[in-house]
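re the bet — no i am not wrong, look at it urself. input seq straight from the record:
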Amino acid sequence: MQEFIKLYPINETERSAFELTSGYTISGQIFYILERQSKFDVPVYGYEFTYTSPYSPIASHIVNMPFVFGTLTNQYIFGEKSAQPAQRDREFSDAIMNYWTNFAKIGTPNADGLPEWPEYKSGLIMDLENKIKARQNNNLDRYNFIGSFRSEGVFPLRWRNPEMKTLISSDHEPLGNMRTRFLNDVFFPAVEKESGGRIKISPHWNGELSISYENLNTVKDGSRAQIIVVVPEYSVKELPLHQLFKSFPVGSTGQEQVNFFRSIYEKIPALKDKIEKQNLHVIFVATGFPAAFFGHEPLNDLSSIKNQNWHSASFWHKDFLSNAWAIPVTMTWGSKVFEALADG
């Protein structure tokens, strides 16, 4: 780390970031090729393009092309029309074209009237600047440092494809209904694909890792699951505003309702703050469905449920049942609901 900081000072963030990116992608790889080729009995020539002028105010990738081909028309790569080329721009372009064509014709860029371009040896390169001259490569230490991570010429695979991270998902409902099938068959695969293989989701269903009333605390803890479905009414103490708000919207349905909820979560600070205070990040918003009670036998009217056992996972629904003189029984979402209906 000390060597890295020495080569890429933290108090020169922008410059260090540029040098590191350049060394890893373009210039560092060119240096690697120069080093390899120079080991053979063939002439090798290296250069760095640093020329600037009002016509060409920065020295960067592809800026040298008009000088190489002699096409000194207006430069647009800087975001707007540049200054007109001056005489020194044309003279510099003539020198560059001579170097390139000489190398193509006779295998060396050198010719009478041009500054001597030495073969690449121990980092000796040509500085194509306002005054063309040979010099040592100023970035040798950086290139050697980056090159030290190569193995047989190749950087570690993890630099390009970071190690895959598995995220555990928990759901209080069984896999099979419309929402859980959508998560399993559509949403999770889409997340994995967008991550470029960096994320793998391991789903768990039917309250295997956490029941509905525990979901918020489970995902906050993060040790058992990192993705979870949080229903506000099961966490009303922590998310009272969300539970109250979601109970009243009328009018929009389907995707319009989803868009409405997303926009409200962004526009009302109190709703967003509650989420952030729970150390949560919303990655998917799903709207609910109309609540319905299912009985084992037909009912003639509401009064028929008096003194009957009715199961529900929602304390809101249990309050409704109590007010209708039924006997509410707590039962979490899952297979037990279907089993209870089956045996009566």
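see?? The radius of gyration is 34 Å. told u. also The mean pLDDT is 82. so pay up
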